[in-house]
Amino acid sequence: MRVFKFGGASLKSANAIINMVSIVCNNKNEHPLIVVVSAMGKTTNALERILQNALNGKEYMQELNKLKNYHLETASNLENNDSSNITNTVNKLFQSFEIKLKELIDQYNGSIESYQFSYDQIVSYGELLSSNIVSEYMNLTGTKNSWLDARNIIVTDSTYTEGKVNWKKTNQRIKEQIEEFKGIKITQGFIGADPYNNTTTLGREGSDFTGAIFANCLNAESLTIWKDVPGILNADPKKFHDAQLYDYLSYREAAEMTFYGASVIHPKTIKPLANKKIPLNVRSFERPEKTGTLIGNEKSHKVFPAFITKNNQALVSFKVKDFSFIDENNLTTIFHTITNLNIKLNLMQNSATSFSICIDYKEYQVNRLIEELSTQFKILFNKKLQLITVKNYTEESIERFKNEKILLEQRSRNNYRIVVSEDITF
């Protein structure tokens, strides 16, 4: 049993899907294979915009039709003259999508909770579309497979946009439905369902995590994540011209890199694999003959510094209004609000008179945070920032940042972290 996961870039067009299917065909053998797919290209971003405009009473049909045409064009390019199965499937899914969207518009009450629920019901259509297109195309070209609805397998709680997996029930569903099978199953990343059969999502870019869930529950031989990069690099090559490829990383080293924001792998992916010592391969769908990066249980060799960037960050600083010190009671108040708003802290730093946090900039969360704490604290706020972590840093490796305007700086034994303006290239 093996698990493959393909991201949106590997499915962005008909030609990309043809390439993806060829990789599956070239790697299939007598062992069963589960293929987890993300939404095509930038579909998730488009669905987010459609939902926000729809809920805010703005025009959204132009973007919806553009997205629909994109999928229909892909379907048409994959079909031969004797078949329209893929096109029919896409049309049916968009009909369902429009009905669901109108229902959610009518139910929306303006709260964060209402938005998060609506988000999961709508954005999940990206994976439903891509997985159906891939499955239909594979069957059309003679690669027999079965389509599997991840919402019938992955059981979560009702924390919408960040569903927490119920491992016991998920394991039970997998054993009941798919533990023993032959051939290929196509399923969706990123999505599951709560106990009330409402669709949930596992967090942005959560398809890697889905692959790890299936691999763990099925005691898979391996998980392979196919990306548009040659493997795991020590930096984003679009920002750092001297990025280098890791041939091997330990689970621990990889987990720490994802924690700090390395975007090649979703942060929750490593633990389910490490618990059962399941190897993770990160390979290029553009150069499938290359071995990429292997992540496993052995200790890493000497690891050169990693430069990890997180864009779209906000820096929020809290100061007590009466000029007294920030004490434990103040921190308790701040952390309680952060927890209630489901905000993740990427970096925090405190001094005698202030407490600063760096978080992903989500407008509705930041606005609520400031609104709820502004009566007790003076709040300073910056957005459109970049958080840079240099893992296993050397003095030479951080010399390149000396001329940048640094809003916040932090050092530990192994890591150097700064918050700077966005879109810096080194």
TrEMBL record:
It catalyses: L-aspartate + ATP = 4-phospho-L-aspartate + ADP. GO terms for molecular function: aspartate kinase activity. It is an enzyme of class 2 (transferase). Keywords: Amino-acid biosynthesis, ATP-binding, Kinase, Nucleotide-binding, Transferase. Transmembrane segments: none annotated. InterPro entries: AceGlu_kinase-like_sf (IPR036393), ACT-like_dom_sf (IPR045865), Asp/Glu/Uridylate_kinase (IPR001048), Asp_kin_monofn (IPR005260), Asp_kinase (IPR001341), AsparK_Bifunc_asparK/hSer_DH (IPR042199). Pathway: Amino-acid biosynthesis; L-methionine biosynthesis via de novo pathway; L-homoserine from L-aspartate: step 1/3; Amino-acid biosynthesis; L-threonine biosynthesis; L-threonine from L-aspartate: step 1/5; Amino-acid biosynthesis; L-lysine biosynthesis via DAP pathway; (S)-tetrahydrodipicolinate from L-aspartate: step 1/4. Its EC number is 2.7.2.4. CDD domains: AAK_AK-HSDH-like. Residues 2-283 form the Aspartate/glutamate/uridylate kinase domain. Coiled coil: none annotated. Belongs to the aspartokinase family. This is Aspartokinase. It comes from Mangrovivirga halotolerans.
